[in-house]
Each structure stands twice: as C-alpha cells, then as structure tokens.
Amino acid sequence: MNILEIEGLYKYFGGLAAAAAVDLHVEEGEIVGLIGPNGAGKTTVFNLVSGALVPDSGTVRFKGISIGGLKPYRIARMGIARTFQSVKVFSKMTVLDNVLLGYLFGGSKPLAMTGPARRETEEILAFMGLKEIMGTRAQDLILANQKKLEVARALATHPNLLLLDEVMAGLTPTEVAHSMELVKKIRERGVTVFMIEHVMKAIMTICDRIIVLHHGEKIAEGTPQEIVRNRTVVEVYLGD
To answer: What are phi and psi of 224, to 5 degrees?
Structure first.
C-alpha cells in the first residue's frame, strides 16, 4: 500500500521550477531516500508534503486522501511529522517539555501533564537515548542531541510517515552510525520513513529505494544498487 503518492507536482518561485512534474510514491513500511545536488528541490518536496508550501499544480495524497494545500497542523494531525534541515527546537525549554509539546500537539489529548503523557514522553526519550538529559534545556545540547530531540518531538505526535531532512548532516562518523540504527528502529516501530540525506553511506545502507532529483525533476529511482550504477546519477551527483 502506498502511504504517500505525488503526481505531476509543480512549484515555481518566480520563473524557476523548484519542483517540475515530480511523480513519486512511498510504500507503507519503507525507508525511502531523496537525494540530489543542492538546489535540486528536495526540501521543496518536503515542504509541499508537509503543508509549508502550496503546490502550483499536481496532487499529493496521504493514505489516499488529497492533502495538497492543507494547513501544516492539519497534515501533522493526519499522521505526517517532519524534521528540518536547520534544527528547530524550543531552545529555552527542557528536552522533556519539547517532546511533551509534540505529544500534546499531535492529537486530542488533555492539555495537562497527565500520567500517560509523562510516561509516553519518557518512553520516547528513552528510545532516542535522551532520557538521562531530559531536564536539560535544548539550547545546551550538542548538535547530535538537538537533532535527536527534533526526531523525538516528531515521534511524539504519533506519525505514520516521518520526513527526515538531513538529520545526519554535521555529525561525526560515530554519531552517523548511531543515527542509522535509530532510523531502522523507527521503522520497526511501524513508522514509514522518507529521508533527505547527503551522507551517502547512510542512504545506501538503510534505504529500500532511492529517488534522485536534479533541477526540480526526478531523474532516477531504484534500489541503492541500481542508483550507484546509474550513469546519469553518477554524472550529476555521485561523481566517479
């Protein structure tokens, strides 16, 4: 079953097509990578899916329902969560409160520090390896933990589809390896993952399929093995 379907998607900024006739799908339970050079339109696609941008034309369907043009909060409460290329955390709030806020936002839950809210929030923090520092303010975390916090807050909204925008950028090799394991474990929790990433080791290791964009257009799609053998992809992005 396709959890996400995009057909004929266009988005223009002035005369520039940031997304041009983009067709793609993500199947439920997959980890799908979205790659391409800087400016290829990857984050634009995520913004169109999550409601930060409205398509000029084309369709975006989530679980068979058209969501193109809906407000971001409505899309989030339907089951799509995301992280951002530049980390966006509530810097003055604690780790715990950042994730609790995601929990409370994600559905019709009582706006209070209830027992179930606290327990589920702490479970997510433990899963992400953040429970020991849950009283720390977000601004005092190292980059790797801020990125994990953003993922934890997204998971707290109970998504079916998680959009990860360069969650491994700027991390050390050890931190990248840990993040790769976390992404696989997130899929094991029943969350489908659609990820933008420039760390090729991660993309080639954990993704079931990879979609390649260039100048707003999809130029290739396939398994990691097919993508690394694709001459067009090698020429415009991967290099020899």
So the answer is: -55, -40
Which of these, 92, 62, 94, 66, lies nearest to 79 by C-alpha position?
62
Pairwise CA distance, residues 183 & 208, whole Å: 12
Rounded CA-CA distance 21/6 in Å is: 9
- Smallest CA-to-CA distance from 150 within 186, 99, 195, 210 is with 99
Task: Give the count of beta carbons closer than 10 Å to the beta carbon of residue 176.
Answer: 18
Rounded Cα gap, residues 230 and 221, in angstroms: 9
In which band, very low, low, confident or very high, does the pLDDT at 41 lie, cut at 50, 70 and 90?
very high
Say which amino acid occupies 183.
V
**Token code pair at residue 70:** 């809906």
pLDDT tens digits, 132-187 = 999 999 999 999 999 999 999 999 999 999 999 999 999 999 999 999 999 999 99
Hunting for tokens 């009582």 — which residue is that?
A: 110
Report d(CA 2, CA 28) in Å as an integer.
6
Name, in order, each residue with C-beta under 8 angstroms of 210's C-beta and a sequence gap of 6 or more. Answer: 32, 33, 34, 35, 203, 204, 220, 221, 222, 223, 224, 227
